[in-house]
Amino acid sequence: MRKIFCCILLIIGTYAVTAQTVYTRSDSVRVVSLLREAPKKQTTGQRMIFFARKLLGLPYVGKTLEKNKEERLVVNLRQLDCTTFVESVLALTRTVNQGRNDFRTYCDQLRRVRYKDGKVAYVNRLHYFAYWISCHEQDGIVRSIQSPNPPFKAVAQKKVNFMSTHQSLYPMLVSHPQWLTAIKQMEQATSGLRMRYIPKAAVTNTKLLRSAVHDGDIIATVSTKSGLDTNHVGIAVWHDDGLHMINASLIYKKVVEDKRTLSRYLAAQRSVSGIFVARPL
Prior knowledge:
The protein is of the alpha+beta class and 281 residues long. The chain contains eleven helices and ten strands. The termini are far apart.
């Protein structure tokens, strides 16, 4: 009788995880395979780099989280944008950090990384990356790196309202206009943040920067565009010639470890003033 009861609980638990999760069999197989490949003795930063490099070459595809009529936890290791790439790498890293290599734990970590308080809902998805950093610092998922000064010489605080002022660009908001109030509340919370960042002119190959930014740190480019906090996110990796970024690149249409230094990349971005840095814990 006890065995039957345990089996029922297992079935119910599995359904509870998968009922709001969208994935293919190839996704679940890939996740478990990657988790089992991970070296046992690595730092969190080393694991971030390990998993980031395992995803090199995957195609850049935007709006993969917008395919469903209602919000679902989407697991997609076949197509990535810059944010889902970073989320996936962080979820893989956190799963291994817990000593686990199963798909259920990965899904749980991805849910915690993607949504405020881990609650799957469109209005809980952490749409603005400065807010993502702030919430996850409170949760103990990352640490916002804002010192020393230099190189963290600049302070960002700006009015964030891109989603609420461009509602037509977001299919979920078009079909659920009642969610706009909650999105505006998220924007207000993001607008209230004061965060130090490294100006792009200070992203140089120096001992100071190497001590401030570590391999595996999460980098978000600070936007100068009206209503936006950040433009792009990726993962820091040092080469002999300086700091580089592993990212799902719209320019290259795939996940790359950019051959250009981050300094050269930033110099070409007119709408970027510098970088935020968050360290996975």
